[in-house]
Known about the structure:
Elements: H1 5-8, E1 52-53, E2 56-57, H2 58-62, E3 64-67, H3 68-73, H4 95-113, E4 117-121, H5 122-125, H6 132-153, E5 156-161, H7 180-199, E6 204-208, E7 213-214, H8 222-243, E8 248-252, E9 261-262, H9 267-276, E10 283-288, H10 289-294, H11 299-309, E11 312-316, H12 335-347, E12 356-358, H13 369-396, H14 398-406, H15 413-419, H16 425-434, H17 446-454
Parallel strand pairs: 3-4, 3-12, 4-5, 5-6, 6-8, 8-10, 10-11, 11-12
Antiparallel strand pairs: 1-2, 7-9
Helix pairs in contact: 4-6, 6-7, 7-8, 11-12, 12-13
D-xylose (XLS) binds at residues 121, 161, 206, 208, 252, 254, 288, 316, 327, 359.
Amino acid sequence: MKSSPKSTRRAAPPAPRAPYFSFAKPIRFRGTDFKPNAEEPFAYRYYDKNRKVLGKRMQEQLRFAVCYWHSFVGTGMDPFGDASFSRPWHGAGDPMAQALHKADVAFDLFRLVDAPYFTFHDRDIAPEGASLRESNRNVRQVADVFGRKMSDTGVKLLWGTANLFSNRRYMSGAATNPDPEVFAYAAAQVKNVLEVTHELKGANYVLWGGREGYETLLNTDLKRELAQLGRFLNLVVEHKHKIGFKGTILIEPKPAEPTKHQYDYDVATVFGFLKANGLESEVKVNIEQNHALLAGHTFEHEIALANALGIFGSLDMNRGDEQLGWDTDQFPNNLQQVAVAMYEVLKGGGLGTGGLNFDAKLRRQSIDADDLLWAHATAMDLCARGLLVAETMLRDKALAQHVATRYAGWETARGKSILKGKTTLAELAREVERKTLEPQPRSGQQERLEHLVNGYF
Ligand code: XLS
Ligand code: NI
Ligand code: NI
């Protein structure tokens, strides 16, 4: 075919960019005997993605995800200092070109650490435009690029979400805003990201109530705001079914920050809210370690409770600091904490459509590009090790047997008839009054069990 003069004068392709990371080859599993060297400075000691753990490949048991916001948007800024990371796609420049640069580096990180999933907010991946229409167009444009990269690499989307908290329009809340026009704007934003998540075959869609809460009751109609939040969530669920999205809708509880009191305080509060709105079989929870601590719970408590209530969805895998009362979002680095959390996950039947999303950020001084690799790879290896410990705890059955013995009375005909509602309060009272012997207390054996658990490490 004869080419037209116009097409022969093609613009020169952009000069190839230098790779962002110093690693060229993906980090591999090498076992615990491997000695790192200049060629291969890091190798997985425990994360052997094809190893079977309780009948599933480790990769499928763990479903690791890299989050876009902390790793590629975060600047290292804190309330006392400006950006410290200076990533090449930050600062002045064409924002769409920067978004594409960022996407290239993100997919390079996924490849290098061998992460099977990622997560994002709409505002992480594309610049906000002059209108919602323009912002949504930007998001779709980057999502198209994601679609191509995902089919080239096999990386999948764990979940998408809308940022309904950064822009000042949301300063008084999104769904819980006193102005219905802000509610409508938030709805329009969620519609777009939910549809994009659906198109990218996301496994879940997350709603974290960024500013759904209040600063002071003096200006707040709490009852009205809760009703707004219920309506909003119902709209999202209705739309999910309308477009045929099969992923799970997840709420991410957090007790405070940014608002003084967040409505989605913890798992128990979210369950009550779902019940009140008839959504307990439609929506599950995305539990974050640091948020559990801020609510005065342990991570494993929140996981166990969600499993007990049938609303366990997914995990934001990070770590808070026991001395600090805010969301430090550090990479997980405590084997025992991770193992007991994974034990609860496995006991409940595993992650389902969920995964382990590293909602974690580098410390402000970790300014090297490779710090992103080290942070993710060490966290992945630690979680793999935690999974193996949890597997042993489960297979060993010693803990489970202790618990079963402790509740054995409830498995007898007597216990069962009480629970089935076959005895009244008056009947129970009459029976007890006839007896001369008191029920005998038995030891909870906590120290012995703590010793048992230490033996797994
Ligand atoms: C903030 C939340 C947030 C959600 C996604 O504290 O953890 O990062 O995971 O909006
Ligand atoms: Ni989170
Ligand atoms: Ni957090």
